[in-house]
């Protein structure tokens, strides 16, 4: 998805995905994303997807994403995250043209 990049994890129930490309953007709800913690909170509040900010583990700007879920729930969460990311990029592009 745009703005979130993750290497394929070897053998765990979670992955750490970089959200560095989302830092500095503003959500459609008007939240400025200054850190991975802001990204995690915005995902929860605006996309209803729970992740943990990597800074909690000393790994910012990453998100810890658990994937020990049933396939339909995981696919729904990924789709919601992708919509969230596309909205950020679209809004940021529009913002650049207006300033």
UniProtKB/TrEMBL annotation:
GO molecular function, one term: transaminase activity
Signal sequence region: none
Keywords: Aminotransferase, Pyridoxal phosphate, Transferase
Keyword Disulfide bond attached: no
Highest taxon of source: Bacteria
Gene3D superfamilies: Aspartate Aminotransferase, domain 1
InterPro entries associated with the record: Aminotransferase_I/II_large (IPR004839), AspAT/PAT-like (IPR050596), PyrdxlP-dep_Trfase (IPR015424), PyrdxlP-dep_Trfase_small (IPR015422)
Cofactors demanded by this protein: pyridoxal 5'-phosphate
Domain Aminotransferase class I/classII large: 3-79
One Pfam family this sequence matches: Aminotran_1_2
GO BP term (any one): amino acid metabolic process
Protein family according to the UniProt entry: Belongs to the class-I pyridoxal-phosphate-dependent aminotransferase family.
Protein name per the record: Aminotransferase class I/II-fold pyridoxal phosphate-dependent enzyme
Organism name: Pseudomonas donghuensis
Taxonomic path: Bacteria, Pseudomonadati, Pseudomonadota, Gammaproteobacteria, Pseudomonadales
């Amino acid at each position: 998805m745009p703005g979130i990049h993750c290497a394929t994890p070897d053998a765990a129930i979670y992955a750490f995905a970089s959200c560095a490309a989302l830092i500095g953007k503003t959500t459609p709800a008007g939240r400025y994303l200054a850190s991975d913690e802001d990204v995690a909170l915005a995902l929860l509040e605006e996309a209803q997807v729970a992740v943990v900010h990597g800074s909690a583990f000393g790994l910012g700007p990453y998100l810890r994403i658990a994937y020990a879920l049933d396939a339909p729930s995981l696919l729904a969460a990924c789709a919601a995250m992708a919509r969230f990311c596309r909205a950020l990029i679209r809004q940021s592009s529009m913002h650049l043209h207006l300033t």
